[in-house]
Amino acid sequence: MQIIMRPMTEEEAWKQISNDYNLFHSSLKKYGYRCWNFIPKPMYELFNKPNLSEQGINYAHQKFMEIYNRNVKVLNRFDDIFESYVKPMLERAVNKFLIPLLSSWNAILPEKLEILCTFGKGAGYLRKSDKEAEIRFRMSRYPDDKDAVLNTLFHEFVHLLIEKPIIQLYNVPQDLKERIVDLICYEFIQIPVQKMFENSFANAYITPETIKTDLPGAVKKMMIDYKILQQKQMQQGQSL
Questions:
Q1: How many C-beta atoms surround the C-beta of residue 164 within 10 A?
Q2: DSSP class of 9
Q3: Cβ distance 1 to 95 under 8 Å?
Q4: C-alpha closest to that of 166 among 226, 234, 225, 223
Q5: What is the Cα–Cα distance from 29 to 109, expressed in whole angstroms?
Q6: pTM
Q7: What is the number of other CB atoms lying within 10 angstroms of the CB of residue 139?
């Protein structure tokens, strides 16, 4: 698998912010995400307002372009540690822990992984095809810690592998999806879990054993039981 890392162009970065704005207000906010993760700091107030007018979007675009042109060099800040440490360690972890599970997860390893760097903190992912995948690394406010970078990229890579054959197949919601990936990552390289998803319905189903033997089956069973629970809760609510 070929892995490359590069800064987003200003057009790519603005498109990413626009997509994140819509996703944040339509979905992610209810799960406890904070909007400041997705943007350069000076854009916080704008991004935090839902339903921006066309005038507001144009102003945000103009403001972002000013920020990008002043700060584009920051998007290269991890180049050295990526080549010397993160990339070889990521490849090693993928080869050791994930490739042996591809067939049991019904997953396909991409031939090319592009890591696109932009402003903010955290990351997202896109499986473009069986052959190509992207990780959108919001790294301008990331800690100067090579293991934190490695952990984030490994987490997103697990997302890439299981998104289509497991998450989309069984219609897994955002909070359970994140918990599944957290448990996989903790099992293999002890990445700290996200506190906001720690007390999860998924905990009883996604175990070290099921991760390694039948992850699709465990997720399928989890979602059957989860939907039954939701139906019971709805019925109880209607009877009150």
A1: 14
A2: P
A3: no
A4: 223
A5: 31
A6: 0.95
A7: 25
